[in-house]
């Protein structure tokens, strides 16, 4: 009958979903210590275990969550926290734009949901997938569902054992967050052009970090990287 989903369609959706789960699985393993470090850091700043977990569930943005915790005071300056989160997450505009042309299989509502649950790791895997095959809502859901659940549960777990861990840097868990980004960068490595972009971004971010307080170095590094990418692409196109 019209409107019913046949066995073949259900099998296809199930296969796409499980494919997304398989591809995101290695990064889920890597994100567990990051979520736990966040939970521990949040509890150390005075938040309850429940508040740490809810922050991960409602914000779902590791970078901005860590920045917010770093700036957290009692009472909290909501304007400063909001502005810092905006600067950190401004990259999501670029990530959303890069995926926009690859969502032809998505309905309008599905596109909105996909962007709401966008994260660096999810975006990277979605980009890899789109290079090889059509990106489907079921595959994207397979990326998001386990990643989101593990991120929230890890924050709860980190909050529970935060008192036992103490300072995450003492046992090296603070390195888990940058380690994931190193893996993502390697996946996008294209040789000299990638190196130029990374060096420009790192140099500008380091300079601004030393000259200006706050998190302006994040936006500065992103802008420098974009400019370097545009210049490099134009030079390669002129050859």
From TrEMBL:
Pfam families given in the database record: AzlC
Database matches in InterPro entries: Brnchd-chn_aa_trnsp_permease
Topology in membrane: Multi-pass membrane protein
Keyword Transport annotated: yes
Principal subcellular localization: membrane
Residues passing through the membrane, by range: 23-44, 138-163, 169-186, 215-232
Localization terms from the record: Cell membrane
Keywords assigned by UniProt, alphabetized: Cell membrane, Membrane, Transmembrane, Transmembrane helix, Transport
Family in the record: Belongs to the AzlC family.
Name listed for the protein in its UniProt record: AzlC family ABC transporter permease
Natural source organism: Rhizobium alvei
